[in-house]
Inverse folding.
């Protein structure tokens, strides 16, 4: 649910990067921070362990521009990937407007990807949100791995009905990082416009 | 769906801003902020003598997340809520009060300011803000829904165009398939509430 601030004439959206541990959620945010122009982005905040694993979340605000006299602002969050931090994942999902599911293309992580999607569905249900009602795109990350699974196989597991936008990426090399964010932002804006 | 955590237009906005100004002046706090519980800044004021604040977006995000985590912690112990959220350091302290069910008042103060004073004045400001919310102010300003729909088709998302330098360096697929949008069949109205818009 987007937040409107009439005093500042802003419409605010919350986008969450979700996925299994080590799939590249934080890398996405770091690369975005490295490449987006200064005037668009705010400070990148990371709450991580000493081993640089996300403990609570990473956060970066992003301003896209004005529409009809209202500024459009996006807050980007990642969740911790490790399963024992599920309580934190759930908190971050509160009030989410759109999700980028960051899937790992490594063969050994196929089950972890499916588990992350199942976990997302369960955690959203606690806020009475159906996954099918939420703007969602899938980023197939680590496509540069020599043994990366075929995209068709990943889609078969994550989206057998073939209804979700998929994007191939190597976030580490800033490949395919902007496209899923653009994709989910478009869905979020369209959803808001359709509520008029 | 659009959510306005507080009525921040017309007389309600004016009264809310006055409540914040009074809180800032009487408490000698550095900054006062009204944020929503998702971590977005709604209003903020800074004392003339105070140093520039840190990133307000980061501050609001951390405070709101801390609030959520504390509420979850209370639930773990079977409590409905913990009463206060406060941090005190050598140079600065923060104090949090709920404003209704959707917003929070954050007061950032120097340690030389007595905490009791901050608490008392913050609670008073919340009472005034809630009273302001009950003022009759007519309809809120209209939101530019049709303009948003047009902007979503392109202009607003130009910031997300892939820079040429990134496309040219380190190509990962000889077919250029990387980063392709593998959009499946059009999702049936993604995000539309069930039962139609």
């Amino acid at each position: 649910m987007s937040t409107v601030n009439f005093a500042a004439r802003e419409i605010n959206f919350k986008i969450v990067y979700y996925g299994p541990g080590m799939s590249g959620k934080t890398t996405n945010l770091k690369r975005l921070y490295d490449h987006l122009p200064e005037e668009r982005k705010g400070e990148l905040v990371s709450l991580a362990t000493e081993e640089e694993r996300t403990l609570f979340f990473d956060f970066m605000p992003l301003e896209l521009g004005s529409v009809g006299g209202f500024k459009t602002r996006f807050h980007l969050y990642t969740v911790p990937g490790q399963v024992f931090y599920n309580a934190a994942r759930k908190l971050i999902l509160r009030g989410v407007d759109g999700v980028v599911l960051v899937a790992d293309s490594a063969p050994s992580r196929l089950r972890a990807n499916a588990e992350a999607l199942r976990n997302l569905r369960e955690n959203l249900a606690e806020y009475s949100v159906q996954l099918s009602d939420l703007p969602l795109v899938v980023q197939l990350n680590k496509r540069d791995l020599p043994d990366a699974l075929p995209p068709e196989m990943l889609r078969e597991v994550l989206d057998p009905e073939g209804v979700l936008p998929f994007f191939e990426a190597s976030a580490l090399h800033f490949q395919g990082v902007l496209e899923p964010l653009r994709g989910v932002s478009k869905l979020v804006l369209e959803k808001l416009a359709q509520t008029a | 769906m659009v959510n306005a955590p507080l009525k921040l237009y017309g007389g309600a906005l004016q009264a809310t801003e006055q409540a914040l100004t009074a809180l800032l002046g009487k408490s000698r706090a550095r900054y006062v902020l009204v944020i929503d519980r998702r971590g977005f800044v709604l209003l903020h004021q800074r004392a003339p003598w105070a140093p520039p604040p840190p990133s307000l977006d980061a501050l609001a995000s951390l405070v709101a997340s801390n609030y959520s985590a504390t509420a979850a912690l209370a639930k773990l112990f079977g409590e409905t809520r913990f009463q206060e959220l406060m941090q005190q350091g050598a140079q600065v302290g923060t104090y949090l009060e709920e404003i209704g069910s959707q917003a929070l008042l954050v007061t950032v103060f120097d340690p030389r300011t007595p905490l009791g004073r901050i608490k008392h004045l913050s609670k008073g400001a919340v009472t005034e803000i809630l009273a302001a919310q009950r003022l009759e102010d007519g309809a809120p300003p209209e939101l530019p829904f049709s303009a948003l729909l047009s902007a979503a088709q392109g202009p607003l998302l130009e910031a997300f165009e892939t820079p040429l330098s990134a496309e040219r360096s380190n190509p990962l697929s000889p077919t250029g398939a990387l980063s392709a949008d593998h959009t499946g069949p059009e999702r049936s109205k993604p995000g539309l509430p069930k039962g139609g818009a």
Q: What stands out?
A: The first strand of chain B starts at residue 2 and ends at 3. Residues 68 and 89 of chain B are 21 Å apart (CA to CA). The beta strands of chain B are 2-3, 31-36, 41-46, 85-88, 93-99, 103-109. The first helix of chain B runs from residue 10 to 27.
